[in-house]
Amino acid sequence: WCKQYWPARPQGNECANCGGALPALPGMERAMAPPPGPRHLPEKYTRDLLLWKNVGAVVGSAFAAFGALFGVIGLGLFLVLLPLGLGFLAFGLLFGGIGWVIRNGSRREGMRQIAALTHGYAAEGQIVTVNEDRSEYINGRHPYRIDYVFQVNGQMVGGSTKGWDVIHSLRRPGEPLWVVYLPNDPSSNSIWPPVS
Prior knowledge:
Strand 4 and strand 5 (185-192) form a beta hairpin. It contains three helices and five strands; from the N terminus they run H-H-H-E-E-E-E-E. The chain has helices at 43-52, 55-80, 82-119; strands at residues 121-132, 144-152, 155-163, 176-182, 185-192. The longest helix is centred in the middle third of the chain and has 38 residues, at 82-119. By secondary structure, it is of the alpha+beta class. Helix 1 packs antiparallel against helix 3 (82-119) and helix 2 (55-80) runs antiparallel to helix 3 (82-119). The protein is elongated and about 70 Å long.
């Protein structure tokens, strides 16, 4: 939840820093079942999920801000040099519009995950694969992509998540876990507790 580093696992099932549920250690033991909804999520976690851990929201916000800057410059120039002002204004509207669409689409995905975590039904699932995701690279490290499956009304549903903690390299296919999902849209799901 809060990415707190603990040299030794704390006693209990909750993070002493943020109060979030701790995931089970790698192995064949399932963590504690999620509490019934609505569940409380740490505020920092939801903020990070909507912005700082959401690459699309960061990129979209930067594009929108850059577009707004060009739009304001274009409005100023519009009064002095009509053709140049129109060019800046059009560029600003285009760039800002693209950024706004990217930002809102990415935030919508984050809101769906938050809805699943707070109000979702719980299901028993299991890990299918764990691999380093080489498409992302920060500070010399790659995140681990965890693919999992669970059943809803007799149908198998899949999902995936990414975590930066090196402990995920010890997770193996077949390992049990909890998944929370929205009953009207099982594709909106998350591992419970979410991984960092």
